[in-house]
Amino acid sequence: MSKKIAHLLIVGAGPQALFLLREFSRMGFNILLLGRPNEIAMHSKYGEKIRLEKEEDLVKILRQLALEKEQWTCYVASGFYLAYLLNHYPEFYIDYQVIPNNKESVTSLISKSKSYLLAEKVKLDYPKSVLLKELEERKDWSDIRFPQIVKWDRDIYLYTKPRFKTAILNTLEELRQLLQKCSPKEKEALIMQEYLGADLKNNISYGAYVLNGKPQLGICVNEVRHYRSGVSSMVEEYTGAYAAEIESKASQLLAQTGFTGFLDVEFKIFKDRIYLLEVNPRPFGFIRILKLKYPDLIPFVLGLKTEAAQNPYRVKWINCMRDMVLILKAPKHLFHMLSVLLDFKGRTFDVWDSKDPKPFFYQLKR
């Protein structure tokens, strides 16, 4: 990335955007942030903000900005925003220097079914899957073995709350009922998979900064505790038996692309085999753990440094508010939470920042 860039645009204003906003602002960049009024980064002291009152405003404002400036460098910090722009703004990757890039790679990785095609080429296992639309067109369902899990193959909503994030199906009757409820648009975007279990200890993610399909700085993490489906409250660096193979599998998968940007690749260890669950080609929710592992992460990403030394400690990330709620429900985890909080050299927080505290207190208010 050029050292001459003085202005950056960030789309989406969740915790991932807040991380980028703070880091780039402290590097001296002028940041313009686009997000909904209730998104947490909109309450940071950093950057200039444009409030998006309705989803139609996003493309309208981006088109206006594209006319006013030669070309913005634009970081998209949310999978929902990224999917929406791919679907509703065909010229986005022409009008802006977009991160994540390139468009073809992003389009493949953002879809589970398309990313599984890449996985096949490197002999990486993934759950047996079928889109609901294709399943409905089939007459023979005798090969379905329950339980099954239904997920979004790709996001289709921005401000509209989806019907669900995931759904577990235990019988054919539950499957029939789901198909009756879903719209044709939803059936095209929902995928049913064999269910590999709910045990978090076998959920391993590989988060990285990638340049032209090659991971530059990466870390394997275990999602120790979930606040709800897909939302972590406690994550720690994973150095177990499968770490090297997971990193290798992720690298092989990404080598087929020209992807540049932050991403995480989610895996599941099931019956001693590594399964690809999904790829999230955008800054991941626990991205601050990557900065803790590599203190020079941002100068490296900006091209200001050619190397980034590793923190020798086994690093951890925690969202205190979410984890406290879970501890109230399961007090047996209290001592583990306290040990993380007291690990001053090896832990980082989701939102808390003493130099920019307002987002944290806005989170409390919510």
From TrEMBL:
Query: Does ATP-binding count among this protein's keywords?
Result: yes
Domain of life (superkingdom): Bacteria
Asked if Flavoprotein is a keyword of the record, the answer is no
UniProt keywords (A-Z) are:
ATP-binding, Nucleotide-binding
Q: Where is the ATP-grasp domain?
A: 116-306
Q: What would be an example GO MF term here? A: metal ion binding
Report the protein name in the record.
ATP-grasp domain-containing protein
Source organism (scientific name): Ancylomarina longa
